Structure formats: C-alpha cells, structure tokens
Amino acid sequence: MESKFTEAHQRVSEDGYESECDKVAHLLDLMIDGEASSEEQSYFNTHIEECIPCFESHHKQKLLKGLVSGHLKRVIVPESLALSIKARIQETV
Amino acid sequence: MSEQTGKQMSKEEKDARFEAELLPVLDPLYNFAYRLTLDEDDANDLVQETYLKAYRFFDYFEQGTNAKAWLFRILKNSFINEFRKKSKQPAKVDYSEVEGYYNSDDVEGEGGVATTTDMRTESVQDLIGDEVASALNALPVDFRTVIILCDLEGFTYEEMAKILDIPIGTVRSRLHRARNSLKEKLEKYAKSMGYNG
Ligand SMILES: [Zn+2]
C-alpha cells in the first residue's frame, strides 16, 4: 500500500474526544460491525487514509472479529435433540 | 400485526408451524447454549427448556418476525434466571489452564493479532480455532455473550439490545470491553508462539 500517510493526526490524548483519532477510535466497532452511518463511514475512511495508527487499529479490529467468525468451531447438535424436542412438544397440551 | 391465530389452530397445525418456524434455529441456539454453559449436557437441557417455553408462548409470537432473536432472548433469560443458579459457575473454568502456558508478564506491546497472517496450514488453523475458543471461554459470561451474538451469529446492535434487555449504548460499551479483553488474551498467545510484530 502506497504511503501518503502522515503522522499529522496522531492520538493526542488518551481521554476524552480531543482529537480526530479519539473520535475514530470510538467509531471502530461500529465500522467493523457494519453499524456506522454513511457520514460516520466517510469520516472514518477519510481519516484512516491519512493516519497510520488508526489504520492499523482498524486492521487489527477486523482481524479480531475474523478470528471469532472464521475460526471458532461450531459444536455439532446431538441428533437426539430435535427429536426429543418434538416429542416433548407433542405431549404438551 | 398480532392476530392470535394460535387460538384457532388445531394442535397439529400449531405443532407444524412451530417446527417450521422455530426448529431451523436449533443449530445456532445450541451453539449459543454451549458457549454460555461450556457443557454439552447443560446446553442440551437449556435448549430443550427454551423450546418448551417458546411453545407455551407461541400464540404470542408474531409470525414472520425474528424467530432467531426471539428464541435467543428466551434462552438467555432461562440461563440467567434458573440455569446459572443451579449449575456450576462456568465463567472462569479454563482460565488458569490457559494462563498457565502464557508468559504472563508481557501483556503490553502490539501486533500480536495483526501479525498472525502467515498461518496457513490446516493444523495451524485448528490451533487458532482452539486458541480462540480458550480465550473466549476464559472471558466473563457477559463478555462472551456479546461476542458470540455479534461476531458469530451476526446480530445487529438493536437485536442484541432486545435479546439482552439492555440499551444499545450498553451493548456497544460491553462489546468494546469484551473485544479488548479477548485481544489481550490472544496477543499473549500470538507472542508465545513467536508471532511478534
Ligand atoms: Zn488517527
């Protein structure tokens, strides 16, 4: 990826929303979960095009979500379960 | 609109509708139950209890609405109200075991999760899956829950708020803290495997 990155928007403070980076950090989960509004999306995307730390945080957060959605094994439902649910329902009046 | 068609239906019709609309959710529901209880027998009981409750209240279920969210909500309430009390508290079961083989002192630093991109072979894939499971199981149940609902089952924040009976703002902050916690555990692991940034 070509670096037209600058360090201009580095995090200023750990608390509060004093910098653009703080606002962007606040939008991180909304972005990876597809919950950000279109304004929030464009604010976010514009910022991470220019800010390496926020770009990296975004990358990491996406990877984390992908680890759960892509690697966590699903457990197999016991075959007897659906049958016993049906049976118990049928005897319920 | 909720017309209570259940009242006019025969038991056969009601049962057929119940099975058609709600049994397709069995797989995600069982997985959710398993991730809450961390025990297959407990998950089995919890899912059966959930379906029996759903059957009793089926007349109030609006056809065509979100059956999955509805069942998840019933299951989560059963888990909190009854189940959690009588079963062993599972939240930290695997924690000491997991912690045991981590080098516990280098939590700080970055790049752990971000640098796992070179893991390609199948056995490594399995290893990652196991490690994600251990890290997730070591989280408090409230954290585990939001991650499962969001990342594994793909519920929206609004659906999660309804399932959990909490405001959306609380969903967001809980999810954020849960992810930080999970990230920390996985970064330790990535480091211990030599995947440093
Ligand atoms: Zn930034």
Give the N-to-C terminal Cα separation of chain A: 65 Å
* Overall tally of domains of chain B: 2
SS-derived structural category of chain A: mainly alpha
What structural class is derived from the secondary structure elements of chain B? mainly alpha
Identify every distinct bound molecule in the structure, by name, code or SMILES. zinc ion
Beta strand count of chain B: 0
Question: DSSP helix count of chain A?
Answer: 4
Q: Order of SSEs of chain B, N→C?
A: HHHHHHHHH
The CATH topology of the largest domain in chain B, please?
A: Arc Repressor Mutant, subunit A
Per the principal axes of the C-alpha atoms, what is the gross shape of chain B?
elongated
Q: What share of the residues of chain B lie within helices?
A: 55-70%
Number of domains of chain A: 1
Largest sheet of chain A: none
Run of helices and strands of chain A: HHHH
CATH superfamily of the largest domain in chain B: Winged helix-like DNA-binding domain superfamily/Winged helix DNA-binding domain
Share in β-strands of chain A: under 5%
Q: Give the largest interface pair and sizes.
A: A-B, 31 and 42 residues
Question: On the 0-100 scale, what is the average pLDDT of chain B?
Answer: 80
Which sheet architecture does the biggest sheet of chain B show? Answer: none
